Structure formats: C-alpha cells, structure tokens
Amino acid sequence: MPMNADPSAIRITSTWPPFSGRETEAKWIFCPWLEGLPSKSGLWIASLPIHDANAVLLAAITSQSFRDMPTKPAFVGVCLLDPFRQLSQVFTTLRAAGISGIVNLPTTGTFRGSMARALDDLGTGVNREIAMMAQARDHGLRIGGVAMTTEASAKMIEAGCEFVLDLEHAEPEIHSATCPAEVVR
C-alpha cells in the first residue's frame, strides 16, 4: 500500500560520492548530467535536448574513479527515451557497474498540456518512459519514478516503482533535492 515517505530520505546529486553528512541516511539518485546546470532549474532544463544524458552517465559509472568507490548509488537517473542507444545495453552496463536501480530522469513529464499530449502521441512521452521502466525491472533493476501528475504517479506505482518523486512539489536544489514521495511496501 502506498504511504508517505520521509522526504529527506530521497535525494538527487550530480556528484558521486555526494557532498553531505547524510549519505548513509539518504537514498541517493546519481544524475551526473546535472553537473553545470543551474541548481534551481536543472531538473527541468535537463528535459530539453541540450546534451546526451546517458553518455554522461555511462562515462561517469565506467570511469576508474567510480569503479574505485567503495559505495555505489542505489539509483541513477536514466534518459529512458534515448534515441542513440539500446536501453537493454544501458541496463546491462548499469548492473555491471554495481547500480541496482534507475529513475526516469531526465523526464518528459515536465512538459504539460498540448506539448505533453504531442510527446505521448509520438511515443516519446511519459507513457513510453513507464514502459521502459518496466523493461528495466525485467532486466533485474529496481525502479523509481518521477512524476508531475497523479495519473502518471499511479501508472508508475502500478509498473512496480518503489517510490515516485513528486517534482511538482519538490525543492529543486540538485545536491540536496528533497522530494515528497510515495513508497510502495
């Protein structure tokens, strides 16, 4: 049954390890592609086609410095609508790097109204992200979601997400984003 989680328990960071005294208390989502984006708007700007988010992620997790880290993030932000890669290969690489879960970040869920409908009509919207989350789950990865609507949140929980971050009500600071979440137990 869904229940409210402690919002301080889920945090987003662009660096690994995160710079905080609360590493052991938090569930971290590692999003290296946020590095250099404005801390107040990075999660929204990252939804635009300004960079290859998965290339940045894959470079980070396959680097020697990451491999040498004693702890790995439980979750990483993956662009689930990547036109350049087979996601099954991305998921295999994540597992080989010691990553146990993914979150749909960046997400097209930040778009609303006619833009959101157009993206879904083209097969590149939130519904496609949810289908790719199920594929990640089928590859043995844990899944978490990011949603801007209760409808999308419900679909993500139905797909098996352990939590759904409510970005509409989140504090968007990158290194210490706290997000209201629903946790499925």
Structure report:
There is one protein chain. The protein has 185 residues and is of the alpha/beta class. Helix content is 32%, strand content 17%. It is built from 7 helices and 8 strands. It has helices at residues 42-45, 53-61, 64-67, 87-96, 113-121, 126-138, 150-159, and strands spanning 2-4, 10-13, 27-30, 75-77, 101-103, 142-147, 163-166, 181-184. It is globular and about 45 Å long. The relative contact order is 0.19.
The spatial strand order of the largest sheet comes to 1-8-7-6-5-4-3-2
User: Which percent band covers the strand fraction?
Assistant: 15-25%
- How much helix, percentage-wise, in residues? 25-40%
Shape type: globular
Biggest beta sheet attributes: 8 strands, mixed
The tally of helices reads: 7
Q: List the helices and strands in order.
A: EEEHHHEHEHHEHEE
Termini separation comes to 6 Å
Mean pLDDT: 79
Q: Which consecutive residue ranges, at least 5 long each, have pLDDT under 50?
A: 1-5, 172-185
Radius of gyration: 15 Å
How many strand segments? 8
Structural class: alpha/beta
Tell me the number of structural domains.
1
Sum up the structure in keywords.
alpha/beta; disordered C terminus; single chain; disordered N terminus; 8-stranded mixed beta sheet; 7 helices; 185 residues
Short description:
The chain is built from 7 helices and 8 strands; from the N terminus they run βββαααβαβααβαββ. With 185 residues, it is α/β, with parallel strands linked by helices.
Secondary-structure map:
Layout: E1 2-4, E2 10-13, E3 27-30, H1 42-45, H2 53-61, H3 64-67, E4 75-77, H4 87-96, E5 101-103, H5 113-121, H6 126-138, E6 142-147, H7 150-159, E7 163-166, E8 181-184
Parallel strand pairs: 2-3, 3-4, 4-5, 5-6, 6-7
Antiparallel strand pairs: 1-8, 7-8
Helix pairs in contact: 6-7
